[in-house]
Each structure stands twice: as C-alpha cells, then as structure tokens.
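hey so u asked for the seq, here:
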Amino acid sequence: MEPDTDAAALRVLDLTDELAFQGARLLVGTGADVVRTEPGTGLGPAARAHWHAGKRWVPAADPAGLDALAAAADVVLESGPVARLRGLREDGSSRWPHAVHVVVTPFGLTGPRRDWTGDDLVLASAGGMTWLGGSPDGQPKPPPREQALQIAGAHAAIGALLAVVSGTPQLVDVSAQEAVAATLETAALAWIHAGRFPVRTGGVYEHVAHRIFETADGYVAGGYSGSNRMWTDLLAWMAERGEAGDLLDERWQDATYRWQQRPHVDAVVRRFAARWSAAELAAEARERALPWAEVVPAARLTDNPQLRARESLVTITGEGLPDGGVEDVGFPWAALPRPVTLPALHRAEGDAPWHGPGRTRHRAERPRSRALEGMRVLDLTWVLAGPYVTKQLGEHGADIVKIESRHRQDPTRFAPSMHLRPGSDPDDSGYFINFNRNKRGVALNLRTEEGRRLLRELVPHCDVVVENFSPGVLARWGMDYASLRELNPDVILVSMAGVGQTGPWRTAVTFADTLAAMSGLAAETRDPGGPPQGLTFGLGDMIAANSAVLATLDLLARGRGGHVDLSQLEAMAAAMGPAALEPVLEPVLESVLNDGGPDPRTAEFPNRSPHAVPHGVYPAAGDDRWVAVSVTDEAQWHALTRLVELPCADGDLAARRAHEDGIDAALAAWTGRHDAHELAGTLQAEGIAAAVVATGQDLVEADEQLAARGFYPVLDHPRTGPVRHEGVVARLAATPGGIDRPAPLLGQHTDEVLRELLGLGDEQLAALAAEGVTE
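ran it, structure tokens below
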C-alpha cells in the first residue's frame, strides 16, 4: 500500500544517515508519511530499496527550505555526528520547537565525548557488544548487519512516539553508544553483581545451555535450557534414537549437576545432531515443541514458509527495480495491512509535500511529567523479551503490574544459571533486578481458577496487557483479545510469540539463538572459512522487545486499542537490513556495497569492511585489550598517517584497499604498544573514529562518557542494597524517563495492588493467601 498521507498519518521529516536509517524505516512501518531531503545516493540498489522504500524525497538545499519542511512536520528525525547536525541551535536547543525532534548521535548530545564519531564497529565496541563476539583465540567482533546502528535507530523511533504520546513537542536525545550498552543482556550486569564479565566463547552461551551444533549437512541452533520439559523431551527423543548415552542415568535429572557437567552433555547432544540433516532435525523439533532451528542464510528469508504464510514480506516496486518489484523482509508487526507493497524512494510532486496541520499541533491538556504517566500495564511476561518491553514502558511513567508466582517460575528469578552471583536467591537475582525495575510485583497462582478470575478482574483497570505465552494459552484462560475487549473495549493486547500467533510454525518454541538461526543472523557470524558461531547474548529478544514497544506506542498515539501480534522472527528478519535483497539486486546491478569486488575479510582480519580501510579491531597494550578503528575518508586517512607510518601514500579507498594487508599489520604493531583508552582518545582528537572494545567493567567503571551522562544509576534494593542498573536510552527533554523503583520481591505488592484496583479487604486477602492463590 502507499503510505497514508492524509491528516491522520504522522508526518516525519527524515534527516537521517546510516546511524538511524532503521528508525525512519520502522516509522514507515507504522504508516507514517516519511519525507527525505536526500534521494538516497551513495547507497547500493539493495540498501537504497530496503532503507528508503515507502518514502518520498524533496530537495532542501538551504536552511530556509529545511525550515519550511520542518514547519509542517510532526516529527523530525535527524542523525549524525554533532558537528554535522542541522537542527540544533548553538545553545543546544532545537530549531524546530513545535515538533518532536529526535537526534541520534554516536555518543549523545552532552558529555565529554559528545563530539566523538563512530560507525557500527566503533559504536558496537564502545557500547560493549563487540567484546561478546568472536572466538577466544581471535579478534572480538560485533554482530552482523550493523546491529549497533539498527538498535540506535529503533530507539530513535521509540523516542519519537514516546514524545508524540506525551502530547508535548520536545527534543529527544539518543546516544548510539547507550542504545548498545542497554542491549547486552548480562555483559555489564555480571560486573555490577558479581565483579566479573562474560568473555567471548565462539558462540557458547554463558548462562543458557544453547549453542550451534553441526549436522550431517549444515548447522542447527538449540539446547536444553528453560523449563524442565526442554530437557526431558529432548532426552526422550535422543533415547528413541538410541543416542542418549549415559544421560539416562538418574544423576542427570538434577539441573544443577547438568549445568556443572555441560561439556559432557553437549558432547552427547553433538553426536545426536550430527546424524540428522539440519532441516529434518529442525522440523522434528518443531513437532516436539523443542527450541531448535536450522541455521539458514538470509538469502532464504523470502522462502520461509512462516513469513510467507503470514504475508509479512514487503514487495518494493519502482524505477530501477525488476518488473513486478522485489520481495524484502517486512516489519515486525502488522501496522500496515498485509500484504504490503511499497514504492521505492521517489521524488514528491512539488516542493511542499504537506499541507495543513499535522497530528502534533497541540500540546497535552495536562502536562505530564513522564510520557506514559497515568497508563497502567498488566505484565504477564517472563525471561527477557517481554520484561524488556515492560521495563521500557515503566521507565517512561507507566504503572507496571507484574504477575508472577512460585508455580510459574521465571528462570531469571529461579534458575541458578541465571543468578549471575553464586549464592543469590530468587529475590536477589541480578538479571531479574535489572530488567524488572519500575514494576509492582503481584503473586497470582494462575493454575487456580480463582487466580485466573482475579487476573481477568485486573484487565478493566489496565490500558495495556503484554504477554509472551505460547499461542492459545490466553484463550484457554478466557483472555484472548476478543474476551479482553469485553472486559475493556480500549485495551491493547501485545502478544510476543516466537513466530507469531498464526502460520504453520505457530507452535514453534524459540529462544534468542533459534530466532537468530531462522532469521539468517547466525549464518553470518562465521569467520571466513569457519563455521557459524552464533551470538552469546539475547540480542533477538531485545530487538523483538523494541519492536513491541514501538507497536504499543503506535496504538497509544492513535488513541485506540488493538491486538499487536508481534512475531519475534519477523522482528529479527526486519533487523537483517538489505540481506534478502542483495542476492536479487546486486548480481544484476553494479554493487556499490562491495565495489564490485570480493569480500575483503580474512581469517586474521574478520572485521574488514567494504566501506573503510583500515577498519578493524586491533590489539592494545595488556592482556586481551583491543581498540576499534575505522577510516572512511581521505581526511581521516591523512590524520592517521600523521600518527603512524603506514604503507600507502595515496589516500583514496581503492589504493588503501590494495595495501590493506600491510596497513593492518603495521597498524596492529603500533596499537599494540599503546593503552586502549588513551589511544582511542588520541585518535578521536584527530577526527578518526575509534573506541575501546569495552568489557562490562569498562562500561561501568572506566567510561567517562557514560559516567557523565549518568547511564548506570543506583537504586536501593531491599535485598541487594544499593545497586547499579542500566539506564534509560531515549532522553526526552520535556517528559524525561527515569528509574525510581527497584525490582519487586516475589509478590511484594500483591495486597497493595489488589486493595487499590479490586477493593479487596483484609479477610479476602487472607483467604486468598490461605488457599495458595497469592503465593
């Protein structure tokens, strides 16, 4: 469909570079009318089609022309280094105060490093993500497909809609470094709670028994963590095939013992997997509702039967594309009616694309202190993806009522492998504490009819319900969307099943690693000539969570209820950039992406880029210390050669590429003699993008930028005491978010909430406790 251009469509002026392309694309997915002032030149055909489909462009060569466009926009989305921003006055305020003005910069608008620059590698390194990837004996490396930039873009879109919902035009500051630092799962939390940090393992998860296994013809991702059924059903399956070995012995039923002896268990599972084809093993696992998936290349995304059945792919049509258009990955939820056809980026007719007022002309009748003040969310989620959604909503003022019980044990509370610190208990789990702050905890035993009745009675008092059960669970409780609407006609239900509520794979059980495998991300984690390694943190959960937050805010901004059927697989596919289009467009048209040449990466230098030379992670002084460096233009190259002698006189990219091996070797020899923190500062002072490859300790204790911006605030937890938490990413000037309430103890606010919302008295509460309904 064409983007909605009537008065109801959000008007977005897109002034982004690659730092926030994903933010503008996600807003296209909400139905916003997005107008650029640059026609997408400099991108390859696949990248241009992917990032800019569904947009129009108009020229705005001078400040007056830009101001005229901004005057009619609801949202101005801008990104780039601070020095290149066009929308800020000298005092740091917005030139367009009537609008929501979102600014994405590498390190934020304030702080001692506000003028530092960075591309995906540098920002993934500065934010702690690069440290987690790669083999123990090799270079650290970030996730594929510029995930640091895509995460920053997603938070930009979230910040835009938060401000729209607040009813207050304002400046929104998004630091790409902070967006990455908030997307590490345990990398910083382990240091905060246990004085250690994860190290790269080549794809073996630290706290979940999942990894990539080789099969007879490829690879699968899977494991045996989660509920006890994940272990017992896998063991039964292996026993049926005569592949269980000694794992049938009684001692292996103990989850703690299994965890301690994980290398042996993995070895037995590896032999089992090796006898299957990847596709057959994955299909059988889906039938058994076990979390396994084939590792597939992104080129196969458009053939995925689940994506096709849900009509989640996008057809892009327009000049320069094949007749009938090309199929691309779509959007994480069905904000646009499916199937979706989008025109390629094209010039708008005339130079004034908008007429009349937009959607955000008026301020809120009652100013809010926070964007979501006055809203209440019923939180039925667990583990990471769902709690990451409600965490963000709570940061911006929503009252989060989290439902738990001892009978449905969130692994992040109860599983020993996820406690981060030995000896901690369910009320003292660092993982749970970070992702469940700003929430009230209510214990309801949903195995009882009375527990489910009380849950239904809470619905009329809530604006949003978020759940990540398997499809069908809510319906069995009489809480499917149709039933919830009878209780609350305006309710928003956010469902976060792994692959969605419909489709042939709807019952598939997924973990972050299986979603990475299905989406093509895991396949691209291989070093040149090596096997895929996968990721060692739940990136897919947090990508899906950001998508769910955006979908929720979209409905709130429209002022209506609805059912968000969010597929975590579709969210991951949407984060693969132009990967699905490249096989179709790049062989036919000249490939700007690769300069028409081969992959520049080598086993020794896996972080090379077609856009920059040098571009990589280089050793620094000390044990396993590294610095990321990226040189994208001749000015940066000449600045670098004033600091170190490198084997190339000419500064253009082609010449540097011809000498890349020598450049990398000489640069590595030089960086290895310097402290990583000092070296990054020296390079940035010369205008060269660089950053320490940060560990969790670096982020929490040694990063002056994060410290200056207060990114790790302290809350006093009743069991843990004063403890740091990861901070708020989208910084709204007029309605700022914040972290005020520590994570609840199990059932801490049960009586408080049931009194406040349902009017229950002391005798009723005592009876519920005696019957085990509120334990």
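The first strand starts at residue 11 and ends at 15. The two ends are 50 Å apart (CA to CA).
lmk if thats what u needed
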